[in-house]
Amino acid sequence: MRYFIEFSYNGSAYFGYQIQPNKISVQEELEKALSTILREPIKTVGAGRTDTGVHARKMFAHFETDKNVNDTLVHKLNSFLSENIAIKKIFEVPADLHARFDATYRTYEYYISLEKNPFSKDSSWQYWRQKPLDINLMNEACKILFEYDDFTSFAKLHTDNKTNICKIYKAEWEQLGHQLKFTISADRFLRNMVRAIVGTMVEVGSGKITPNDLRKIIEDKFRNSAGVSAPAQGLFLVDVGYEF
Fold it and tell me: Is position 242 annotated in a ligand binding site?
């Protein structure tokens, strides 16, 4: 039987979601806990992979077992796992439903702190030392993203991507007190894409480039044309959609 797990994690303690040699990852911790409790080797497939230091408020993975799984497994996993990972739900799905390939959209949020805040240093880009940002210009630039589907300029170099085509459904900035929040939703994302977009948007907001310059950056299809990647700790995966 195939099961989906819905969970969240604080990425500060991990070298990303996906298992890596000699580095602690969320997937490794999850599989170790499942294998111990179910007393059989368990492999999981995640909805995607997040980079070192990136967080997830809503992540999914699937695994298979012949054993009967009930609600007590959620409690057992939460007791076994570190405080950085929280299991929310486990539920049976059709045998062919795939956590990665059947996801219809993913949504990320990115947070920028405009004041020195010791309580958000692990969950936002501490931007208070730098030039003020014009959120209106940044939202003007967001509208340009909808005109394109090839985001090679925002993709990490030398990856195994078969295509850099993505369909963006939503991209907007809003101010919440002394914090800026960027929300972006798409059918898929390239590695480092959101952080590269945020870094470029900050260049727009600070007046280094204009919103219209974003068109040339995208059309160049060259990573070095875009801005530097925003720090990882401000990025959260907040939703993954499926046609359950």
Answer: no
